[in-house]
Amino acid sequence: MNKVKLVKFALVGGIGFIADTTIFILLYQLIGIDILQARVLAFVVAATTTWCGNRCFTFSNRPLKNRFAQWIKFVTVACISALPNFLVFKLVANQIGSYFLGVYIALAIGVLVGMMSNYLLSERWVFAE
């Protein structure tokens, strides 16, 4: 595992987390959309944000043949990685509650769990040399 790429991936993921959390707060807290619907919509925005960041920063030295095909692969990986992300999110939210900070703690823990599978699949498939 390349430590420099992992750090870059985590930095881009941090930006994605900010996008994810911001959209989630807007949809859930301000607009009042159902918690899981808000979570899914925020996830799509974050996945697209992190694909752009990883394409331009983390894996900028890798060849790019077709941006759309690569984005589809990245979103596929993000969806695969969303399974543990959402599962942990739901489990933690059920345990500590979805009131005020509890939902955001669950969000953060879910994102961290999903990041690990996302990095491995991105490194080996989406941005493969």
TrEMBL record:
Ranges where the GtrA/DPMS transmembrane domain occurs: 8-127
Keywords on record: Membrane, Transmembrane, Transmembrane helix
A Pfam family: GtrA_DPMS_TM
Membrane topology of this protein: Multi-pass membrane protein
Name by which UniProt lists this protein: GtrA family protein
Subcellular locations according to the entry: Membrane
Domain of life of the organism encoding this protein: Bacteria
Family listed: Belongs to the GtrA family.
Residues annotated as transmembrane: 9-30, 36-53, 74-93, 99-121
PANTHER family for the chain: PROPHAGE BACTOPRENOL-LINKED GLUCOSE TRANSLOCASE HOMOLOG
Native organism: Vibrio algarum
